[in-house]
Amino acid sequence: MIGYIKGTVEEIGPDYVILENNGIGYRLNASSNTISHMILGEETKIYSKMIVREDDISLCGFYSKDEEEMFKLLTSVSKIGTKVGMSILSFATVGDLARHILTADIAALSKAPGVGKKTAQRIVLELKDKVKKISLDESIEEVIEGEVAVSSNESDEAIEGLIQLGYSNTEAKEAVSFVSQPGMKVEDIIKKALEYIMKTAMKF
Fold it and tell me: What pLDDT score does 56 carry?
């Protein structure tokens, strides 16, 4: 496993960079965000992840550890492979992606290349809790703190309300986690959760 490569930027393409280290040119697939930090002829450090397939072995490069971690999270979601993962990282910065996920902004995520509404819903459902563990900027931390303030009382009451309506504990928790946002009242959370359950036909 190659954790990172330090070398001189020898070539910059629309979706890749070539970094020379000790006479070897490493071609790394990269997002537009990473490519925007590259300058021809300058020495730089790129974090990398090796992708191994039956018919191909390639390297993906990332300007920061946060971007690499976000890529790993995105590609852990069903039906999101290397190409789509890179397209999503080119669509928005890591900070913006984290914000979209934490606030369940399906409309924004759906605009990313290769991501439809259902895939955007899966991204939020599967990554909302995981994305909080990435080292993020202060603005994202404020969103996380706001979520914590909401989740303690309002979310618990909303979950209890859904259970009383006949939904399972697991179903209620998943739905509330998906729709709850800072400032929402209990009745609003329940309403949105019911809409989410009905639209996605969640099965547990």
Answer: 82
**Position 203 in a domain:** no
Q: At what angle do helices 65-74 and 82-91 cross, to 10 degrees?
A: 130
Whether this model's pTM surpasses 0.70: no
CATH of the domain at 71: 1.10.150.20
Evaluate if residue 178 carries a pLDDT over 80: no
Nearest to 114 by CA among 125, 123, 101: 123
Strand 43-52 relative to strand 4-12: parallel, antiparallel, unpaired?
A: antiparallel
Asked whether residue 12 is assigned to any structural domain, the reply reads: yes
pLDDT in tens, 34-85: 999 999 999 999 999 998 887 888 999 999 998 999 999 999 998 899 999 9
Question: Region 148-166: what's the mean pLDDT?
Answer: 73
Closest-CA residue to 77 (of 121, 116, 122):
122
| Range 86-92 contact pairs with CB under 8 angstroms and sequence separation of 24 or more | 86/15, 86/29, 86/30, 86/31, 86/60, 87/112, 87/113, 87/114, 87/115, 88/112, 88/113, 88/114, 88/115, 89/31, 89/33, 89/34, 90/15, 90/31, 90/32, 90/33
